[in-house]
Design brief:
Layout: E1 3-8, H1 16-31, E2 34-38, H2 42-47, E3 50-53, H3 77-82, H4 84-93, E4 98-103, H5 105-116, E5 122-125, H6 141-162, E6 164-170, H7 177-186, E7 190-192, H8 200-212, E8 218-223, H9 252-264, E9 267-272, H10 284-302, E10 308-313, E11 316-321, H11 322-325, H12 334-340
Parallel strand pairs: 1-2, 1-4, 4-5, 5-10, 6-8, 6-9, 7-8
Antiparallel strand pairs: 2-3, 10-11
Helix pairs in contact: 1-10, 6-7, 8-9
The chain binds 6-O-phosphono-beta-D-fructofuranose (F6P).
Keywords: ATP-binding, Cytoplasm, Glycolysis, Kinase, Magnesium, Metal-binding, Nucleotide-binding, Transferase
Binding site for Mg(2+): 105
Cofactor: Mg(2+)
């Protein structure tokens, strides 16, 4: 039996509670181990804020609940490095044998770093953006796509009634997975993703052509990190870089709208879905994926397979080395985006 520490870090995401439950049930029931839940991501380890997780009633009904019962936070990598001594002290004080951090890029990079520092770690990937390497899917993505799909279905009807262009901005700071999938699912006419800079003139041309041939509306789905092609007549608004060195460009839809109104002579409205995509109950797919990833991570810990991340390949649970998982973000392959063009335009 072991004492296992768990935490949820980074942005919240549907399925986090299912993953917490999966880890805890497996550790308690299969291995007779103890689970300690740290509060508010890495902050709980820095300040030793925690609770003992037990089975039975306390885990009952958390499966369908959104958010995370442990709380979450974004902790800057430098703050974490400066706090290594505090982290070690917390682990020792609580006699933690292994740590299971559940999170996206930032949390898993921190997990990899701690693993290199000699802490026994197994990660669990989560993000609605689906951009973690070394796993086919992350939980939260399916739910976010369903929410975006529902919203876009509704916007189609309003756009048609008013002869309008509707631009919907979905999440995806660095990758266009949500935009691509929700766009295909709803028959969007335009899909822009960060991986393939858009040409505003091409978009205006497409919109003009649709209205000229008698179509009554245009729906465009814009991943929030979409960027204009260089030299395409639209300037890239510089949003700086984030704490991992990725460039940030946000508000693409709002910047595109007036240009389209002017060039195509049609009414344009924008909708930013924002945090709606991250809240509320997870889809059945995400509940099952999160439960399985959690249980798989618990198993890996008991088998001493540290420095890894639970992952899904096809329908199978696997372990990917953390170093490989965080090497680079999983972007939408351009072939996949181009192949999807048959469905839009
Ligand atoms: O989970 C990643 C993400 O959804 C990004 O697509 C988005 O830009 C970001 O979270 C915003 O989250 P926050 O405001 O919580 O940092």
């Amino acid at each position: 039996a072991m004492r296992i520490g768990i935490l949820t870090g980074g942005g919240d995401c549907p399925g986090l509670n299912a993953a917490i439950r999966g880890i805890t049930r497996s550790a308690l029931d299969q291995y007779g181990s103890t689970v300690v839940g740290f509060h508010d991501g890495w902050r709980g380890l820095l300040t030793d804020s925690r609770r003992e997780m037990s089975g039975g009633q306390r885990l009952d009904r958390i499966l369908p609940r959104g958010g995370t019962i442990l709380g979450t936070a974004r902790v800057h990598p430098e703050r974490l490095r400066a706090g290594l001594g505090d982290i070690r002290a917390t682990l020792e004080r609580n006699r933690i044998d292994a740590l299971i951090p559940i999170g996206g890029e930032g949390t898993l990079k921190a997990a990899r770093w701690l693993s290199d520092e000699g802490v026994p770690v197994v990660g669990v990937p989560k993000t609605i953006d689906n951009d973690i390497g070394g796993t086919d899917y992350t939980f939260g993505f399916d739910t976010a796509v369903s929410i975006a799909t529902d919203a876009m279905d509704r916007l189609h009807t309003t756009a048609e009634s008013h002869r309008r262009v509707m631009l919907v901005e979905v999440m995806g700071r660095h990758t266009g997975w949500i935009a691509l999938r929700a766009g295909i699912a709803t028959g969007a006419h335009i899909i822009t993703i960060p991986e393939d800079p858009f040409d505003i003139d091409e978009i205006c041309g497409l919109i003009r052509a649709r209205f000229e041939r008698g179509d009554r509306h245009v729906i465009g789905v814009v991943a929030e990190g979409s960027v204009p092609r260089e030299g395409s007549g639209m300037a890239l608004r510089d949003g700086g870089v984030d704490e991992y060195g990725h460039e940030i460009f946000t508000g693409a839809a709002a910047q595109m709208a007036p240009l389209i109104e002017r060039a195509a002579g049609v009414e344009v409205r924008t909708t930013v879905l924002g945090y709606i995509q991250r809240g509320g109950t997870p889809s059945s797919y995400d509940r099952v994926l999160a439960s399985r990833l959690g249980a798989h991570a618990a198993r890996a810990v008991h088998e001493g397979r540290f420095g890894t991340m639970a992952a899904v390949r096809g329908t199978r649970m696997e372990l990917t080395p953390l170093a490989e998982a965080v090497r680079e973000l999983k972007t939408v392959p351009l072939e996949l985006y181009r192949e999807a063009r048959i469905f839009f335009g």
